[in-house]
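sanity check both lines:
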Amino acid sequence: MNTVIVLTGLAGSALLHAFVRRQQRIHEPLLDFALFRERSFTTATLCVIGCFGSYVALLFF
């Protein structure tokens, strides 16, 4: 494995972790993680991510 790829993945994971922890602590978060407790919201979010991911993959072809 390329060390640049591993370091970039670790940095991204650390930034994501910092974002989640900050959003859970502040009074008015950008993303309220309590919404993900609702199954319909979580399912809809995963479907949208899947659609956009498929679209981006299609752009590469």
Notes: The chain has a mean pLDDT of 94. The radius of gyration is 16 Å. DSSP finds two helices and no strands in the chain. Residues 3-25 form the longest helix (23 residues).
